[in-house]
Design goal:
alpha+beta, 6-stranded mixed β-sheet
């Protein structure tokens, strides 16, 4: 179990929460604008992976010269170690503020609040994640959660800064006309011959 309280976590992360929100909002905006042409064919998993990659890239840039934080990587996991006490993963969250994980030994160890082999021991393994709105067109909330194996020990929302712009992803493409696919569809030649002979 965690060896640190939610209040202590909120205090430790206070200097970083605005950066987390900005990086996640910027990653979503990048997806919304740079991938708009292809977003209609993206599976939700593809979208989540693209947004994740941009979140990590944004965080690496923003936290490059911030003391007390460093990225650690092991077997596909990229996490942020904060003050040697908190190990943070960045994820998309469900409505219940849970992250979806393939049940590997690593993900179970993380959720059970146990130290991950080869990584510095932390007082808590936490998830900083974004939730999408019902239509999955915008970020509805960004939360810090303390996972257990099947639920949450606790969590809190990172509030949006006053006056922050909220940008929504369009539900329909801006150009409602026919769209050219980024690939060609081969016609079944046997079927085409049968249709021609009929």
């Amino acid at each position: 179990m965690t060896q640190i309280s939610q209040d202590e976590v909120e205090n430790l992360l206070d200097p970083l929460t605005d950066i987390f929100r900005e990086c996640m909002d910027a990653a979503w905006e990048t997806y919304r604008t740079k991938y708009a042409e292809f977003s209609v064919i993206h599976h939700p998993r593809t979208r989540a992976n693209i947004v994740y990659d941009h979140i990590i890239a944004n965080l690496r840039t923003r936290l490059d010269r911030v003391g007390g934080v460093r990225f650690v990587e092991q077997r596909g996991l990229i996490a942020l170690l904060v003050e040697g006490q908190l190990l943070l993963k960045f994820k998309k969250l469900t409505k219940g503020r849970l992250s979806r994980n393939i049940p590997t030994r690593q993900s179970r160890t993380f959720a059970l609040q146990l130290p991950l082999p080869g990584l510095p021991g932390a007082l808590a393994n936490l998830v900083v994640g974004y939730q999408l709105n019902e239509l999955q067109t915008d970020i509805a909330g960004i939360h810090v959660t303390c996972p257990t194996l099947d639920s949450l020990a606790w969590g809190f929302e990172i509030p949006r800064s006053p006056g922050a712009d909220v940008v929504s992803m369009p539900v329909e493409p801006a150009d409602a006309g026919p769209q050219e696919l980024p690939f060609t569809i081969k016609q079944d030649t046997a079927k085409a011959r049968r249709d021609k002979d009929a």
